[in-house]
Amino acid sequence: MIKVERKDVADPGIDEKVKNLNPEKIEKTINWVLGKEAAARLKAYVQTCIHCGLCSEACHYYLSHDRDPSYAPVAKVRQTLWEILKRKGRVDGESLKRYARIAYTECNLCRRCSMYCPFGIDIAYLISIVRRMCHLLGVVPQYLQARINSQMATMNSEWLTQDDWIDTAQWQEEELRMEIKNARIPLDKKGAEIMYSLHSVEVKFMTQLIANIAKIMTVAGIDWTIPSTDGWDNTNQAMHGGDFETMGMAVRKHFEAAFKLKVKKIVMNECGHAFKAVVYDGSRWLGWKESPLPYVHAIQFYYELIRNGKIKIAKKIKEPVTVQDPCNLVRGRGLGDMLRYIINATCEDFRDMTPRYEHNYCCCSGGGVLHADKPWKSVRLEGSRVKAEQMKATGAEIAITACHSCHKGVHDLIDHYKLGMHVKFLSEILVEVMEIPEELRVAK
Amino acid sequence: MYEFLTSTEVYNFIKGPLVWVSFIIFIGGSLYKIISLLFLARKDKVVYPYMSLKYSVRSIFHWVIPFASTNMRKRPWITTMTFSYHICLVLTPVFLLSHNMLLRDSWNIRWWTLPEGVADVMTLIVILCTLFFLMRRLIAPEVRFVTSVSDYVLLAMVAAPFSTGFLAFHQLFFDYNLIVTFHILFGEIMLVAIPFTRLSHMLFFWLTRAYTGSEFGAVRHAKDW
After folding, report:
1. What is the pLDDT of residue B58?
2. Which of A299, B101, B129, B132 is the most buried (most CB within 10 A)?
3. Which residues of B touch A51 (CB under 8 A)?
4. Is residue B141 in some structural domain?
5. Is some CB atom of chain B closer than 8 A to the CB atom of A122?
6. What secondary structure letter does DSSP report for A196?
7. What's the number of domains chain B is made of?
8. Which domain holds residue B51?
9. Quick check: A37 and A29 in contact, CB under 8 A?
C-alpha cells in the first residue's frame, strides 16, 4: 500500500471538536446525510467509478505534489467517502479528522476533474457531501467556521455592523469627490435600475474597490444603488463549510434586499464563490431554478459597458499582463471570452496562460481553502506550485483576476514563489485606463 | 469431476436454462437499476430541471469518439487501448460465427457475422488490453492507490469468457468440452454481474454523462471535454 504522508497541522476547529463526538452521533449523522440528502447522484457516481485514475492529471494538488497519488481526485474520494460507505458510517474521531482535512483543505471544489473523468463524475460534489457531514458534526476549520458564525450573526462575513458599512460607503464617496464631481454611492435608492452587491472584505480591508466601482458607475452614468441594511454582502463561506441552511438564509436576505429596492437586476463585484452561491447553490437551495432576478457578474457588466461605449478607454496598460481564469466564472459560467475582451481592450501586451479557459488550473485558494486560513496556508501554497509555474511561463508583470479568492491566492503565491508580479482586479485596471469626461473632473 | 463437468446433462443445462436465467437477470436487472436510478433522481431535486437533450448529446458525443476530449488526447495509449477494448468487448460476442450458429439453430435468427480471423484478432485484443489494464493497476501509482480486490475481480470476470473462448476456438491446452463448458459459464457470470457490480458503468455512463453535459453546457456555459 502506498503511504499517505502529511505534515501535522493543528486546527482547533477540527482537533478539539472531534473530542465532543461519540461513535453513535457520528454514525447517525453520516447515515442521515447518506440516506436523506444525497440520493441519485451519489449512488450513480459511486457505482459508476471504475477506479481508472484518469482524473489525476486534472488536479493541481496532484500536479503540484509531484504526482503524489494520494492527492488525485479519486484518491480523495477513496480516503473519505468510500471508506465511510464501506464502514456504513461507523467511523471514529481520528478518521473524521482526516476526512475533514481532505475535504476542507485538499480540494478547492474547482470541478476541473469532472472534465477529465470519462463518466463526468462530479467529484467536487462528492467532496462537498463529506463537508456536509463534517459541518453537521461541528468539525470545521476554525477560521472558516468563524466566518460562518459572523454570517449568522451579522449577515456578513467580517463582523461588520450596519454603521461600519454605511460609514465606509460615505467615506469612499467623499474620497472619490476629490477626483470626480458629484460622485455618489447611492444607498437605498428605490426603483434604481441596478443593485450593486459587494464583499464584506472590501468594506473591511479593500475600501478602494468601493470607490472604483462608484467611479465606473458615475462615469458610465448608471442608475444604481446599494442597500444600507443587511443583504449588501454577497460572500458565503457557509456554502463552503457545508452549512447550507446559513447559505440559504444569506442568499434569501440578499434577494429580499433587491426586491425591497425594486431594482431590475443585481450586478455583483469581482468574486467567484459568491456568484456560485447566489446563482447556483443558494438559489437551488431556496427552490429557484436560477436566480429570481438577473444576476450579472462584474466581468459581464464591464464587458457591456466597454462594448456599448459607456466607458471609453483613454490609454492602455503597457506592462505585459496575464489573466487567471476564476473557476467559478469561467468553468462555472463561460465568462472567459468576455474577460479576454476587457483585457484586450485595456492592455497592450496580453499573454494568456496555458492551459486556459475551462482547463485553467485553480489558484488553490477557492472552495473555502483560503478561508481555512492561517493553519493551512502552507498547504494552499504547496498546492499552487503548478499555478505559479504556469504564471511564470507567461513572463507577465501583472496578473489580472476577477475573483477575490483568486486575488488573495495569486497574491500569496507570487510572494511565495517570488514571481515578481502584481495582482490586480479588473476594476483597478479600468479606473486606470478609462476616459473621465471633462465635465466630471474636479479642477485641480 | 471431469466426467461431471463434461457430461451432456451439465452442458445442456448451462447452454439452455442457465442462458435464459442469465439473460433474464441481465436485462431485468439492468432495467431495474436504470429505472430505480431515474426515480431516485427525482428526489435529488437538482437533476431533472437542468437536463438538456442538446447538451447531453454534445457531451456523450465528445466522449464516445476517440480523441475527442482533452484527456483522451493527453493519453493516446490509454485512449487507444480503452476504445479497442470496449469496441471488441461488445462486438465480438454479438457477431461471432459460433454464437450466431447457436442462435440460428435455436431460433432461426440470422444476422451479420464477423469473419473468423477478425473475431480471433478482436478476442486477442480484449485479452491483451486486459493485461495492459492489469499492469496499469499494478504499476501506475495513481491507479494502484485506488485499486482494491474488487477491481481485479472485475477485470478477471470480463477476461474469463474471452480467454476461454480463445482457447476453445483454437482447441489449445485443455479438453475442448471442458473449456466450452467454462466459457459459457463465465459468459453467464459476466452478464449477471453487469447490473450488480461496477460493470454497471455500461448502463450509467449515458446518464452521468448526460447530466454533467447538461450542467456544464446549459447551465454553466462551459465545455466538459
Report:
1. 95
2. A299
3. 143, 146-148, 151, 198
4. yes
5. yes
6. E
7. 1
8. 2-219
9. no
pLDDT of residue A3: 79
Is residue B224 a part of any domain in this protein?
Answer: no
> Does pLDDT of A320 surpass 90?
yes
CA distance A263 to chain B (A): 24
Residue, of A25 and B171, whose pLDDT is higher: A25
Of A69, A122, A358, the CB nearest to B142: A69
Rounded mean pLDDT of A422-426? 96
Find the residue in B nearest to A276 (Cα).
B220
Q: How many CA atoms lie within 13 A of B105 on its CB side?
A: 8
Amino acid identity of residue B141, one-letter, is P
DSSP line for A322-363: EEE--HHHHTTT--HHHHHHHHHHHBSSB---SS-GGGPPP-
Give the per-residue pLDDT at A1.
60
Is the minimum CB–CB distance between A61 and chain B shorter than 8 Å?
Answer: no
Across the interface, whether the CB atoms of A114 and B216 are under 8 A apart is answered yes
Cβ <8 Å between B212 and A122 = yes
pTM of the model: 0.94
Per-residue pLDDT tens digits for A164-176: 999 999 999 999 9
State the helix-helix crossing angle for A123-136 and A93-105, rounded to 10 degrees.
Answer: 130
| Cell numbers 458629484: residue | A182
Establish if B57 belongs to a structural domain: yes
Q: How many residues does chain B have?
A: 225
Closest chain B residue to A289, measured at CA: B49
- Are B146 and A70 within 8 A, CB to CB? no
Distance CA A390, CA A220 (A): 35
- Please determine, for residue A338, whether its predicted confidence score (pLDDT) is greater than 70: yes
Evaluate whether residue B225 is within a structural domain: no
> Cβ(A403)–Cβ(A425) under 8 Å?
no
Please identify every stretch of chain B with a pLDDT value under 70, giving residue numbers as ranges: none
Domain with residue B132: its CATH number is: 1.20.950
Relative to beta strand A265-268, strand A321-324 is: unpaired
**CB spacing of B145 vs A78 below 8 angstroms:** yes
